[in-house]
Amino acid sequence: MGQIKTIGVLTSGGDAPGMNAAIRAVVRSAISHGKNVKGIKRGYTGLIKNDIMDMDARSVSDIIQRGGTVLQTARCEEMFTEEGLKRAADVVKENGIDGLVVIGGDGSYRGALALSSLGVNVVGIPGTIDLDIPCTNYTIGFDTAVNTALSAIDKVRDTSTSHQRCSIIEVMGRNAGYLALWCGLASGAEDVLLPENYDYDEQTLVDHIIANRKRGKKHHIIINAEGIGHSVDMAQRIEAATGLETRATILGHMQRGGSPTCKDRVAATTMGCYAVDVLCQGKKNRIIAETKGEVVDYDINEALEMTKEIPEYQVAICKELAI
Ligand code: ATP
Questions:
Q1: Containing H/E element for 151?
Q2: Is residue 1 over pLDDT 80?
Q3: How far out from the chain centre does Cα 169 lie?
Q4: Is the CB of 174 under 6 A from ligand 1?
């Protein structure tokens, strides 16, 4: 069995509902295994600044149901410099942290990989609303975010139908279209624009809106992914081209907040405990993932080399049903 005595935990990148449940699982599982736990504030920024606190079972009371992250999070430019990375690795060692759990997205994993090359033992847990981590079928926060977006889209749809408008609703996801695709499928949107395959041909959109209006459709909902953006300008151009009132709604940061769904709490809890198990087994530099419904772990290099595509079948049925 491994020699781990002290586990550090941080959240990094964009916050995601369920990060607190993951922190709770890491802290309590580590304590149950007889380990010390240190919480690092504001991701890699707090690590470099040595903003670190001891955590016990009570430090994570009453957080499983809360959105955001009690450890807070940040994007940290210093991690892209040799000096910043070295400082971060030194702080890990000075604090006696022999296993560092990083809860975040792909970028946070790249930071973890860089730290591993300086001798830090890292374990990544997928925490991002974007679902864009290739090695895993699920990322903590996606279910909550997609349901938050969906309930907003349903509301916009009510008013769009009443006014017979065209509505462009912009959802998050950075450069990935998973959130947009799921929102499109679940809301029955007429068009879904994904960064992975959008051809920027607005005439096709305009023709589709006009054809649907002739078919008797009372609204036209376009889900636009953040990676494409420019929804307000797009709405103005579409209104000019179709003669139909067209409004843009950018859902923005409300998609990141709120109490995590059951699915996110369960995924976060399972993956948090699994991360501690992996460290206690003496494994080094692993990424926790969900594959075919099972929680698994991959070598961090292997995980970061994986790729994933947007599911073509779901893209196709979205179009097929928008008649
Ligand atoms: P999300 O996409 O959900 O916001 P993320 O983890 O992908 O999450 P990023 O902003 O891409 O978010 O990365 C978080 C932080 O990880 C960065 O601010 C930086 O500190 C660190 N990081 C990202 N890429 C690297 C890299 N190549 N080398 C070192 N550190 C990195």
A1: helix 142-163
A2: no
A3: 19
A4: yes
Q: With a 6 A CB cut-off, is 107 part of the ligand 1 pocket?
A: yes
> How far, in Å, from the CA of 1 to the mean position of ligand 1?
31
**Span from the CA of 111 to the centroid of ligand 1 (angstroms):** 6
Mean pLDDT of 190-213: 95
* pLDDT at residue 148 tops 80: yes
Domains of the chain: 6-141+260-305 (3.40.50.450), 146-255 (3.40.50.460)
Tell me the pLDDT tens digit for each residue of 60-103.
999 999 999 999 999 999 999 999 999 999 999 999 999 999 99
pLDDT digits (tens, 9 = 90+) for 205-249: 999 999 999 999 989 999 999 999 999 999 999 999 999 999 999
- How many whole angstroms from 59 Cα to the centroid of ligand 1? 26
- 75 touches ligand 1 (CB under 6 Å): yes
Residue from 11, 47, 79, 175 whose mutation best tests the ligand 1 pocket (most atoms within 8 A of CB): 79
Coil, strand or helix at 6: strand
Cβ(106) to ligand 1 under 6 A? yes
Residue 242 neighbours by CB distance under 10 Å: 18
Residue 2 in this model has a pLDDT that exceeds 90: no
Query: Tokens 């509902």, residue?
Result: 17
C-alpha distances in Å from residue 138, one per residue of 5, 79, 105, 122:
30, 26, 12, 20
Q: Give the catalytic positions in this structure.
A: 130
